[in-house]
Design a protein that fits this description.
By secondary structure, this protein is mainly β. The protein has 2 domains: about 10-45 and about 140-250, Thrombin, subunit H (Beta Barrel); about 50-140 and about 255-260, Thrombin, subunit H, CATH 2.40.10.10. Helices cover about 10% and strands about 30% of the residues. The protein contains 3 helices and 14 strands. It is globular, with a radius of gyration of 17 Å.
């Protein structure tokens, strides 16, 4: 990854100080080709969370950004007292994983979120109690507002979303590599008015996000540190991997994220 404003060295130092973005269990990032994804290594994406109904049905993803907060999509419509956050999960069909259950004490949706256009599709979930960090549960770093990611940068998205538009969600966490696409190219594909500054595009390379991945992470790695650059927002309804997926842009929304957390 190339940062033209916020340097790699500076980002790595900040990440080290904050203790974010460095998985204790290294992910498999070579040969990676969600739709047309692959099983993740258990525990290798320690910030990935599953948002579930009380009956255990997975409906959205999310990212742990510190001990008290999870970032997800506004469209997931998480409800206090009903939905729960599962951390440290890999195989949803297993009862032997050291997972943590958390309830949500507060849901804060971006005030300019549009259900019609999915602009500003982001929400912050304050957990009912601090998460106990472990080798399988740790936060991801947030992209600074000054980050500039070059088109073509290989980043990763993860989730338990459908592997085709008509199948059920997989039990094992999936991962796939998706190249960053420039806003100009993305607007050529989706239309000038659909892609806003608060969105970032990636994919169109043989794999895609799908239903159930919403709110999950788009992360890029530099010097061993993983940074959250996007949150899964929308894609073609058929989850066609020839089209790029669209993510809420963390760098563009970083100021709102910081202000919201500091005041709550």
């Amino acid at each position: 990854m190339t940062f033209t404003i916020f340097s790699i060295t500076c980002l790595a130092l900040v990440a080290s100080a904050l203790g974010c973005g460095v998985p204790a269990i290294k992910p498999q990032t070579i040969g990676s080709r969600i739709v047309n994804g692959q099983n993740a290594i258990s525990g290798s994406w320690p910030w990935q969370v599953s948002l579930q109904h009380p009956n255990g049905f997975h409906f959205c993803g999310g990212s742990l950004i510190n001990e008290n907060w999870v970032l997800t999509a506004a469209q997931c419509a998480v409800m206090v007292g009903s939905h729960r956050v599962i951390l440290g999960e890999h195989n949803r069909g297993s009862n032997d994983e050291p997972i943590q259950f958390q309830l949500v004490s507060k849901v804060i949706t971006h005030p300019l979120y549009s259900r019609a256009t999915f602009n500003n599709d982001i929400a912050l979930l304050k957990l009912s109690s601090p998460v106990t960090l472990t080798p399988r549960i740790s936060p991801v770093c947030l992209a600074p507002s000054t980050i500039n990611i070059l088109p073509g940068t290989r980043c990763f998205t993860t989730g338990w979303g459908r592997t085709t538009a008509t199948t059920t969600s997989p039990e094992i966490l999936q991962q796939t590599v998706v190249p960053i696409i420039s806003p100009a190219v993305c607007r050529q594909i989706w239309g000038q008015s659909r892609i806003t500054d608060a969105m970032i595009c990636a994919g169109a390379s043989g794999s895609s996000t799908c239903q159930g991945d919403s709110g999950g992470p788009l992360v890029c790695e530099s010097s061993g540190v993983w940074t959250l650059v996007g949150s899964v927002s929308w894609e073609r309804s058929t989850c066609d991997p020839r089209f790029p997926a669209v993510f809420a842009s963390i760098s563009q929304l970083r100021s709102w994220i910081d202000k919201t957390i500091s005041s709550n």
